[in-house]
Amino acid sequence: xxxxxLDEDELEPPVPPGLARLSGPLRSLADFxxxxxxxxxxxxxxxxxxxxxxxxxxxxxxxxxRLPEADKDEVIVRLLRGDGAHLRAELxxxxxxxTATEAVRSGRxxxxxxxxxxxxxxxxxxxxxxxxxxxQARREAVAAAAREQxxxxxxxxxxxxxxxxxxxxxxxKPKEYDAAVAFRVK
Length: 186
Known about the structure:
- The chain is mainly α.
- It is 64% helix and 2% strand.
- It has a domain at 24-119.
- The protein is built from eight helices and two strands, in the order H-H-E-H-H-H-E-H-H-H.
- It is elongated.
- Residues 1-22 are annotated as: Disordered.
């Protein structure tokens, strides 16, 4: 399969409405297709909200009565052949009711769309770095407080602390050496 070269000056394809709020199945499809989340969100900026118009029964009935006989026959044949899954959406689109599915051209170039995705990615990276730095600072503060507390305890009776360290070393056991190095008053 040959890959197409990307022309960043070309306009992005039409953006469907509702791209900013994907349903569960559409989110799963996007994940399965490994669509870049930042690129999808950048594209969604030009997406109109998904709206639903509820038409009255009388208005729909009037529209159906005005349909040409050939169109009605085609719809019935398709329905009987099992093509009903998409038929309702197609008819609602023709009627102008139901869920809005008209895609809109945003006027952005592919390069601008990619730059928007890059900006979103950089922002997410910066936020992650800030969270990591805050977590590191928190861990260091906890360690410093624990060290201060340990030193305060040792300062109460330093002679007793050194005596316990000497006893641990005298056992000549590796575990006791480790305990002497990381000595804590019991």
